[in-house]
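Handoff note, outgoing to incoming analyst
You'll be picking up this chain. Sequence as last confirmed:
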Amino acid sequence: MSLVRPTEPIPVDKLGRTHFIGLGGAGMSGIARVLLQSGVEVSGSDARDSDTLRELEEMGADVHVGHAAENLGTAETLVVSSAIREDNPELAEAHRRGLRVLPRAAALGALLLGREGIAVSGTHGKTTTTSMVTVVLQHLGVDPGYVIGGKLVTTGLGADAGMGEVIAVEADESDGSFLMLSPKIAVVTNVEADHLDNYSGIEEIHANFASFVDRVERTLIVGVDDPGARQVAELARERGKKVLTYGEAEDADYRITRVLARGFTTEFTVQTADGDPVDGHIAVPGRHNVLNAAAAVAVADEMGHDLDVAVEGIADFAGAARRFELKGEAGGVVVYDSYAHHPTEIEADLHATRAVLASFAEEAEAAGEIGEERPGGRIVALFQPHLYSRTRIFAEEFAAALSLADEVVVMEVYAAREDPEPGVTGELITSRVDHDRVWYVPGRDEVVRRVAELVRPGDIVLTMGAGDVTELGPRIVDAVAGAADDARG
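Most recent structure output, in case you need it:
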């Protein structure tokens, strides 16, 4: 993957029949769904069949499994992601015909034209924050459109056209594609070094965020606890933009003054300069998710909605797929799945899990139930590194973050779009973890067995990574259940 060349979006009604290469992907399928709901003829292809393809087919899309030039049919516009190579037969055919070829983000940008666009960007938290914005606005009766990178638990969908004038979308900085969006309101959660297979370093990342600031038409909402995002806020003010901030920092416009774990629920208080403190809660763990919630209520408040009602609405958020998603429970062991694939994300999830375990222990102690299964439980982390380049660059940081878990199992690197690098394996991380309860286990079947052997009642297993590690959660649940049945005889 590499940085994409910015392309200005065109109105949806000018796209004509639109073909997607990689239609089954989370980002592409969401845009296709909204276009179908908007009356655009859609076709597309993917390397393998999926439920997502079948859902789009039921909505009227012309779906193909496998890539071939004839799949284009009568398409007038081709939409591609930055992961599609130039030798793809459909892309080559589109160039031969002289069709309009749009990057995925330009198609997403088309959805914002003529609507009250809200774009959420940042190195971490985009999917969760966009999801929270959507749920809060739904609670307020706005019926927004949305395109997010994971499915909302409340709707079972990752995208919908909505009936109102508002649409909330993720603004992806990983390949520079957020520079094709022109939102009315934008959120920047944080700015850290990542995607260094595309960027030369943090300086280039900051330069791209500076360009993104220029595209925001009205208000920038920034998480100022993060130093990189704070720099973006300062730059935006210098350029005359309206800037609102959120976080635990003393100078935050939406200041979080209390965070309290109650099992998997987190209570919080938000304070504004000209209002009374407002108490709320979210049904997901972690201080980082409270910050995401603060961003969502700040968006609603900036749009003119009542802050108290917005905070009330955040309680409706039930999570998003692959964002601390429950996979099952067996033998007193609970298994969750997370998309965390950067050291900061892993650290945040492990701190959140530790707070959950501590909360359970406190509740049990208060109730005189010491010795129950959950209290005293441990964190068993199963991590699948994503990309050879990221593994090599952040090996030390991954190891430091994973050291927060009691038991650590690291899989082989998920290559995604990269070719293997000599000497870069999951062992590059395990060799640096600062305790001895760590294993490098390349094989998928062996990984499931190892985790099932390690756990004991009261433990929380957290599978983490951007690859196919998500498929292992249910298998671990089944393995633990089988072991529990065997133990009972």
